[in-house]
Amino acid sequence: MSSSYHQPDAPNSPLDDSDSDLDLDIQELDPITTSAATGLSSSRKERKPQEERRTAHIPLRNLRMGGLRGLGKRSRGYGDLGRDRDGNNEDLYGLLSDEPGVDGANRYSAGSSNGGEDGAPLLAANGHRRRPSTDTFNKLGSHLRLPSFLSTTGSQAPPDDAEEQAEEHDPSSSRTVSVGASQTARFPPNAVSNAKYTPVSFLPVTLYNEFSFFFNMYFLLVALSQAIPPLRIGYLSTYIVPLVAVLAITLGKEAFDDIGRRRRDNEANSEGYTVLCFDGPGVGNAERYHAKKKLKLKQNAKSKRKTLVEPDRLSDIQEEDAAENRGTGLAQFPSTSVREVIRKSRDLKVGDVLKLGKDQRVPADVVILKSYTNESAPIAEENEAPIKSQSLLVEPISDPPVDSTAATVAEGHESTSKLGNTPSADAGGVGETFIRTDQLDGETDWKLRLGSPLTQSLEPSEFVRLRVVAGKPDKKVNEFVGTVDLLPVNRAGYDPYLPRPPRLSNEVNPEQPSSSTNSAPLTIDNTAWCNTVLASNATTLAVVVYTGSQTRSALSTSPSRSKTGLLEYEINSLTKILCALTATLSIVLVALEGFEKVEGKWYVKMTRFLVLFSTIVPISLRVNLDMGKTVYSWFIQRDTGMPGAVVRTSTIPEELGRIEYLLSDKTGTLTQNEMEMKKIHVGTVSYANEAMDEVASYIKQGFSVPVSTDASQSMLITPSSTFVASTTITATRTRREIGSRVRDVVLALAICHNVTPTAEEDNGQMVTSYQASSPDEIAIVKWTEAVNLRLTHRDRKGMTLHSVDTGRPVVRVHILEVFPFTSDGKRMGIIVQFLDGSETAGSVNIEAGEIWFYQKGADTVMGSIVAANDWLDEETANMAREGLRTLVVGRKRMSVQQYQEFAASYKEAAVSINGRDAGMARVVSHYLERDLELLGVTGVEDKLQRDVKPSLELLRNAGIKIWMLTGDKVETARCVAVSAKLVARGQYIHTIAKLKRKDNAQDHLDFLRGKKDSALLIDGESLALLLTHFRTEFIGLAVLLPAVIACRCSPTQKADIAILIREFTKKRICCIGDGGNDVSMIQAADVGVGIVGKEGRQASLAADFSITQFCHLTKLLVWHGRNSYKRSAKLAQFVIHRGLIISVCQTMYSIAIKFEPDGLYKDWLMVGYATVYTMAPVFSLVLDKDVDENLANLYPELYKELTSGSSLSYRTFFVWVFVSIYQGSMIQGLSQILTETSGPKMTAVSFTVLVLNELCMVAFEITTWHPVMIICLLGTLLVYLGSMPFLGGYFDLAFIITWGFVWRVLAIGAISLIPPYAGKLIRRAVKPPSYRKVQAI
User: Fold this and answer.
1) 426-439 pLDDT, tens per residue?
2) Rounded to the nearest 5 degrees, what angle is found at the Cα of 773, between the Cα atoms of 772 and 774?
3) Which of 1144, 1304, 1130, 1103 is nearest to 1228 (CA)?
4) pLDDT tens digits along 662-686
5) Does 298 count as an annotated binding residue?
6) 1054 labeled binding residue
7) Which 3-state string (H, E, C) describes 1113-1140?
8) Distance (Å, rounded) from C-alpha 618 to C-alpha 1173?
9) Alpha-carbon span 369 to 88, nearest angstrom
10) Is 1056 annotated as a binding residue?
11) Can you tell me the distance from the alpha carbon of 1084 to that of 1086, in angstroms, rounded to the nearest whole number?
12) Active-site positions?
């Protein structure tokens, strides 16, 4: 720092002793909480150089008065206390003229009337606005904050350190986000897109996909060959029009599906969110300056009014500050004014500050800045709301003497909701909010999220001073590393030298711009990722850091892919056989004539034959199949048995009939993610269902206070209260014992938890709701309320329980220590001191009440902690078999001495540097977790979706292997697998968890080889190890097991498993899920099914099929899937038959006319045969069904046989080929024998028989008649007969109306049809198909 800035004669100037004791002491005493006031008595000329090192200099006067002034000012936007002394309008204009174009001299001159010499050093230092020195600042990096005149204030002005931010364009580097301002780098838009195509890529991609199919390419070549004159046969349009029609239908369907996806994306992207906009001097808008001026004058008037509240307490502050503030023109109002606007989700940008409320979906990845209860002052009124808190804050609230330190006073204020500006989500902490992440990682537990202490205590109007540094976009949802920086105060509208309020010990002082304290770290606890949902009744302000494709959920999601059904590939391979047949026929016909005898070139003749026989590969096949898919999709969407079903990919409904593996998510798919307390066992008696009423009556008796009790006497109950027995004198001793046991266990459950009650207004009524990280705990606390003991208040110091019956408080405890639940410990404990009501509000004495340690946890860990007993293992096993999540509850009474010993040891362990966690666990184990009195066991049920059990059973019987992939905990997954009957009763579950070594992995694999009837439960860590080192062996074993449950799976792991099974088994797999964490898995599957979840539609939007309930899946597969596949298989083979038979007729004709490649049926006859005369009856096969829906559900084994692909196989295909060859040769051969070799008579007979033959074959194939089928058959027949008079160019019309024509047609038709039909009847009698057997039962 240049010495020219230093004024040697400045009073109390501490610049020269930066290493002084004061420096050290303040940092050591409270390294984070040091007050922002620095050297108020120093003259203004020292201020600028001090900005970089302000923390060190805190006069004792400020320590004495800082809290008083700070709390008042903080509550209404920075220092209203002395507002009345800033009424000088010239001072205000001096500030407000601070535009980028104004130089440093003008900037401060207006306010320097009382201190001409004060301005000189500022002018010297700032005359050129320090522009040349920005490089130096940049080099100094985080050690030095830029002064206010180099930083931004406005929402639109880019930061002056733009050079530093220019490199952020690279997504692989970390980013610096200017809060509430526009960014210098460009980030992706915040739009969700599940569309497969863009307007540019649509045609190239779809055409490529179409022509990658052999038969489309084949027809393209045939159509192109007709452009060459020597190869032309008949009309060019005969070949081109069908191809164009096929492509138009397919492309139209793809476009329709994709437009539907875009429309649904648009709905999600148009969701409105409240965004805070910051207007201030930095924008350079004159009107806003005047608005600011009015605001300040208004505030001044208010502050004059407010100062009357406590004039004696404020006068000394005003006197001390007056000399410094009177002449400076530095105003006391916030840096910016804040207004709220509603913005669509897609318009959100990095840096936007969102205002989110309860049950709102988070639209992008955000960092939480601040959170406050909904009773708090709204942001828009931040300058007016806290008027009344002035007196509260200046006159300290009567807190207990023990809590009178600055830190605990602040703590007390923030944990009770007395203050208008309390930052906590409710009781229990600074800026707490809970989020639900089940849409992101599948975990059911709510996650606690916090605002950074640096930003939590900041007014929203000061958010523009924040810079968030975040790492590069990453798919790891449980990791985040970043920092938040608070830049020095802006040049206008803020005075940093006023004292700030005292803060919590772990809080960073936000007003200290020195490099050591105005940065705070950010972790995963300060974030909320896209698609999570705010669960607590709090308003949360958060800044967007990642948008669109860079959010965690988008990075965990694989891009959409075009899915093609197995049937398409099978037909494609059959087409290749037909094409080979065509080529063989052409070569044979040319060879029979002799290559040397051929007029002209032999290959020209062969190509003409190829074109003639092109009907063998029927182009109408694609048209029929695609139209069939549309019909199946229509059936699915119109099914009243599964309302809300949507087909998003209409190209693969047949795939639903071929599923062999079902991969299901747990949370929200199999379960409702709603917990319910089902059972409680107290050692001798078990209560469930209706018996819970008995528990309620015990509690009613046990927690009622006798009327005779003196009003001055204790009105609160403790575990050892004795007078409660008087209400049950008439009861038997056993009943009294059970009553006291029930009372003890209910009291334990009502106290041992981390639940916070919140009051919400619902339809005009106040409703108490609960929030906690674990839904299990909420279920238990709701149950205690149902049995008459309600939790009404909780903060970090205590909780209160009321009797539901009387509405009076019956239990009040002081919380001494809480041991939260961890995945390793699997238990949570709490030490409480019961208050008996005799204490005064402010005198909680450690020796005044009973001290109890309560603990609840998993039976595996609690078994060794509780005292010896003979029923625990048996009862927990019984509950586990029912799929209930068990918790064992115990308690232990502690003497004051025992507690004090424990507290001392625990504190000692907590401050040790090495092995802290293990040391703390050891102390807890030694002092507390020994011989606990066993109170009872609870059973909580994770409510299953409707009809999940019968649905899973039916799917298993249908031959489908079911895997459950979840992001949730191992215990939770096991309970749900059992309760959902995914694992059969008594079936062994082999668990592989926390696998670290390869040799252990081999042991597990060897075990599974020998026990293939067991279910496998594996966690994500072990799965990753097995897939890395034993990929093939593991998947080879896993696919044979009846059920696999994988927990703690990341979204990417889910997708990897789906791809692995698909590639290894070559079977069709279906994935079903409801959350954003399931999207990758759904898109990786052959068939993706999305359930429309409570919290989002990401899964249903990305899926091929969307349903509203898991139980609808059975109908989708067993009924619609089966029908779609069987119908398409029959339709495909019939269309092939229709094309093949006409080619056989053409071959017979060519042989008869001496191997000439001349068309038998030309032009209209060819087009008419493929369309008008046969299409409707053949297509009506899509309405056929072999069994009704009840039978399909009753005998799911009918579905199992489809997986073998027997409906469309090489065997059935060749049967149809032989039938076609027989019928074609009979029709054409007999027509030529009975009429003439070539001519209109022969054409009339053979074409008529051909059409009638097809109509009769359709009738033979139909299993269940439908009115539409009859209409199609009779209608087509009438159309053909009606069109015959117009076919004079092809037929001999005179011959048609003779009996000779009629008997020939009937005779040839009978010879053609009777043998195939007879063969079908014989086969059905000898070996009836399954559906016939079922119908016969």
Assistant:
1) 333 457 888 988 77
2) 95
3) 1144
4) 999 988 889 887 889 999 999 888 9
5) no
6) yes
7) HHHHHHHHHHHHHHHHHHHHHHHHHHHH
8) 15
9) 35
10) no
11) 7
12) 665
